[in-house]
Amino acid sequence: MGEEETTELKLKLVQELAKSGCGPSDRYTQREEDRPISSCFLPSSSSFPQVPIVNLHRLFNGDDDEAHKLGSAVQSWGLFQAIGHDLSPSFLDEVQDVSRKFFQLPLEVKQKYSNLKSGKFELEGYGNDHVATKEQIIDWNDRLYLLVQPEDKRKLEWWPENPSSFREILHEYTMKTRKIADLILLALAKLLKLDENYFVNELGDEAEVFARFTYYPSCSRPDLVFGIKPHSDSSVMTILLLDEEVDGLQVLKDGKWVKVPSIPHALLINLGNQMEIMSNGIFKSPVHRVVANSKERISIAMFYSLEPEKILEPSEHLVSESRPSLYNKMTVKDFLIAFFEKFSHGVCTIEWLKV
Ligand SMILES: O=C(O)CCC(=O)C(=O)O
Ligand SMILES: [Fe+2]
């Protein structure tokens, strides 16, 4: 057995650590200079920058003011709160509810979906994030990670059957959020004066969509750890359903960490690296992080990623002599391998891909 595999096997689930009353050990403790100190943190108050809010109902009905708001949100923040979507509050509550119930199950039940198979890490399933080296500082969360689209690539053995409605709710959430994602992609293409189907077609039927259910156990020393360390998403776009009770997400804006407040039943739309690249840097993929809390927290992320064999590059309409491509080309598959390797070492932007 290789050394890395041994490292993985020794790790406990964070939820079990928290339950046993142990605080975070060295493996979770950030170096002093990296800790979530409050000096660079802006509380949300009217005198500080506020995360933009876009009304999707107005946007999808051709409201120019809303399109303008979207444009400024994705160019200066790279993320926004989406209200006015057509998902009912009771359905979103159900999504939250089945997620919470899954993490509340006894360990033996959840282990049926473990992302360690004979000690080897699998992308899908329940467990820790990938631990690449012994030096890696581990985030204070457990996750359930599932490929939800294309449908014929789903591996149902990873999909919980408990709570009994989990699979059905996840399927319905996948279909409904994909419609919202496609409509947002249309609006984004229009902003760049591209064919309005440009991003929808780039994503296409073979796009890989992953659902990540992240459980952040309560932590006795939230000042020492991260729920998720600073990063930008690898996706084209991410749709996040935030915990309604407990905040934790923060976004880096002009060098300051700004709190992303949870608005009940809103969706948080976050552009990822693939969109930054396709838009040749016009749209931003923001650096964000999650701080731990003395209360537990859950979030559900849907990541939309281009088909693995595709070449990741800016739209040719956004490249000219005066604005050459800012990024080196590679396949999506190679990009993702490099991304996850760098993420585990705490790299949080795509500076490394720049020409
Ligand atoms: O839990 C959150 O609020 C954000 C999670 C996140 O950034 C991610 O899963 O990439
Ligand atoms: Fe993220």
UniProtKB/TrEMBL annotation:
It is an enzyme of class 1 (oxidoreductase). GO terms for molecular function: dioxygenase activity; metal ion binding. Its EC number is 1.14.11.19. Gene3D superfamilies: B-lactam Antibiotic, Isopenicillin N Synthase, Chain. Keywords: Dioxygenase, Iron, Metal-binding, Oxidoreductase. It holds the Pfam family DIOX_N. InterPro entries: DIOX_N, IPNS-like_FE2OG_OXY, IPNS-like_sf, Oxoglu/Fe-dep_dioxygenase_dom, Plant_2OG-oxidoreductases. Residues 205-306 form the Fe2OG dioxygenase domain. Belongs to the iron/ascorbate-dependent oxidoreductase family. PANTHER family: OXOGLUTARATE/IRON-DEPENDENT DIOXYGENASE. This is Leucoanthocyanidin dioxygenase. The gene is LDOX.
